[in-house]
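Quick start: read one record
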Amino acid sequence: MARSVKKGAFVDGHLAEKIASAQAAQSKKVIKTWSRRSTITPDAVGLTFAVHNGRKFVPVFVTENMVGHKLGEFAPTRTFHGHSGDKKGKISAGSAGGAPAPAAAAPAAAARGGPAKK
């Protein structure tokens, strides 16, 4: 649920101070923060934040399109490595469609010592 307009956007106090000092000094230095819950305000546009994702700090360069979103939205906490069933479903590069070609069956039977089908 959205925050009340009357209250305004939530930004941690210590982060608001760092943003104000960076804007006053026109500093491009990276601002390190653990505050994933803070909302990106128009004052933060053009700054780079190092947002902690639980393991490391992810650099986030703030643009105009990010205003109103939370910092944590741009530093994912989980890494998706794919489903475990995908390994079986992979098709080898040599065969098309997963089924062996009919011409390839005869040499394979001869290699096993069986009679070749005609």
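The longest strand covers residues 48-52.
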